[in-house]
Write a structure and sequence with these properties.
heterodimer, A: 173 residues, four-stranded antiparallel sheet, 4 strands, B: 72 residues, mainly alpha, 4 helices, 0% strand, globular
Chain lengths: 173, 72
């Protein structure tokens, strides 16, 4: 038994309903072949970074499961044939990743606890320091590159914007 | 005497960089979507390797762009 994670990008024309149906289908496929789904994270509709099959948006779903490796080939084949699946990515979750995730989780817990104790301590979310130091570096080297990391942070809250709260009810278009 | 600044992921003792961490990955891309070379970002070789795979995976599922020429 190995652990895997798959990200699926579905055609927006499926609508909310078809999107959920498709994911259930994938889950059933995994279940039927001796796998066990342990995590089901639906991000909902998101704007794609680039057009795929003339689509600018896609429904994202992330599943995590445990199961035999033989399943992967079949699943991959099935996904490939499905026209409503714009993209899929299946990766193997090894022990390194598992421990790394666990560490991150614990660190986050520790951080929130620290924040609770001291409210005014502004401990930025992960990656905040990255941005700052990156900027400094750019200045000190004074690189004449035309491409400058503009380090704007408008996407700040975007990352976990997988909340399915957006259009729960019927969509207009 | 210039001291080599340690890589930020090393400071964090990161063992893995996930392709879903779009926010973090974007900081290591130029505004045109290229991966920033580590001579500029100061990331160590080990973490740069993790970064590149993460960015490439993220690109595959359209979380990140290959280039910005296409859209916008």
């Amino acid at each position: 038994m190995q652990q895997y994670e798959g990200t699926f990008v579905l055609d927006p024309s499926l609508q909310e309903e078809g999107y959920n149906k498709q994911l259930e289908r994938i889950k059933k496929f995994i279940d039927d072949r001796g796998g066990r789904v342990i995590e089901d994270d639906r991000w909902g509709l998101r704007t794609l970074a680039y057009e795929i099959k003339k689509q600018t948006q896609g429904f994202y779903g992330v599943l995590e499961w445990e199961g035999p490796g033989e399943l992967i080939g079949e699943l991959d084949h099935m996904l490939r044939l499905d026209e409503h699946i714009l993209r899929h990515l299946i990766i193997h979750i090894d022990s390194t990743i598992l421990t790394a995730r666990e560490e991150l989780r614990q660190r986050k817990v520790a951080r929130t606890e620290a924040e609770d104790k001291d409210e005014r301590s502004v401990i930025g979310e992960e990656g905040d320091e990255h941005e700052k130091e990156f900027d400094e570096e750019h200045e000190s080297t004074g690189s004449p590159e035309e491409e400058h990391e503009s380090a704007g942070s408008p996407e700040e809250e975007q990352e976990s914007a997988g909340s399915p709260e957006q259009d729960d009810e019927g969509r207009e278009e | 005497m210039t001291h080599q600044k340690p890589c930020r992921f090393c400071i964090e003792k990161r063992r893995w960089i996930d392709y879903k961490e779009e926010k973090v990955l974007r900081r290591y891309m130029t505004d045109r979507g290229k991966i920033v070379p580590r001579r500029q970002s100061g990331v160590c070789a080990k973490h740069q390797r993790m970064l590149t795979t993460a960015i490439k995976r993220a690109r595959h599922v359209a979380l990140l762009p290959f280039t910005t020429e296409s859209l916008r």
